[in-house]
Give the backbone structure.
Amino acid sequence: MDISIKHGTPGKQKTACFIVAVYSGKHLGEVAGALDKTSRQALSRLVKRGDVTGKLEETLFVPNATGLTAERVMLVGAGKRAGISAAEYIKLVTKVASAVIEAGLKSALSALTEITVDGRDEAWKIRQQITAFEGAAYRFDEYKTLPKRKPARFARLGLYFDAADPVAEAEARIGDSLVKGLQLTKDLANTPANFCTPQHLAEHARELGRQFKSITVDVQNEAAMEKLGMGSLLSVSRGSEQPAKLITMKYDGGKAGDKPVVLVGKGVTFDSGGISLKPGPQMDEMKYDMCGAATVFGVMKALAESALPINVVGVVPATENLPDGKATKPGDIVTSMSGQTIEILNTDAEGRLILCDALTYSARYEPDVVIDIATLTGACIIALGHLTTALMGNDDELAEDLLNAGQETGDRAWRLPLWDEYQQQIDSPFADIANVGGRPAGSITAACFLARFTQDYRWAHLDIAGTAWVSGAKKGATGRPVNLLFQYLRDRVARRDG
């Protein structure tokens, strides 16, 4: 999707659809009013007779209006002229984007930045429109063969301003970078597990390294991981014929001496549960157990595309979790890279087993902060549903920054406690730690497990089990929390440079 800023005479704008606002009380917005004059009141006549009233989220397509270069105008109910809430604006632009895409249009020009949103600036409104159209336009049909002629995709989003606007131009470029990151995350996550293997992820990392000089890639094989002492990670891969990979992508956008942010993404490319086999229904969705890894890939691409001046390291432990004669058994004890021993009570709690070694490995980069992203627990869905990502960690400032980034983008998170009292649930009589702590507070005790490997740095954990994908007829990856993390990194740069 190409993103651009347009300005000049409204009536002369070439587009498949010019999107303009109508406010409550049947009042045309500024750009709609200009189009109305050029079209000899074609728009105001429709408004006066009540075809659209300005009620929030109303939409009306007006084709071939007299005197306009645009093929059609979309009148959008924008509510009160004095302003609407951020949530209302997000809902509005999401509905508008869906309507444009469903109409089969290839391009659109939006003037909805003119709408006043309480407490939000121009840049925010630009970002929301871009992400709304990206979400509506995204398709994953690589493996479809019928029909032979695939429908044309939405290709161009323009954002209209009266005159040249450097802020808008800069935000559009950032938005374009974010869109490319989101699309990579979704593509990787939606790819079936017979194609998206640990090797597939490694190849994608190398491709990013070839594409961007700012990204350096390193891929460790199982022999190298054995030398590093990653007994916990390797215990998961034993049941698979696909060798595990430890993938590192190093983005050098900042100064040489700046400590990096390390992002660690769970990369279980298919999770059967191992010997603790999952139920059959919806097991196909376990290809999404690498959405944490896909998120890291997407963020790294967005960083490189935008040339954001910051240092970031992406670490992806990648493996399958399958039952086999060599597979790890419940009751087995393994030794992690940290030296801590782990009693594996449930092989379906494998994400924390690969993450703990990756988190220990991350310390070598002397990070300022470490953030892991993982589809870690079903308990997270029970606690928070599918609306928000669960956040836990050992640093209040880091947690607050992530929460604020989520609020800014609409890709929200909610913090759960990580009190020391929960730690006793994962004590083991035979090893230093057990990999599960029972049903109560399952998301919290999973984070407690990770916390035992993150005591040397500031750390946050994002459990995205409820937000990384949707089920049902419209099954597919959401791209979350790429937007949240990219905004967090932008905010770090802004605070540093501000």
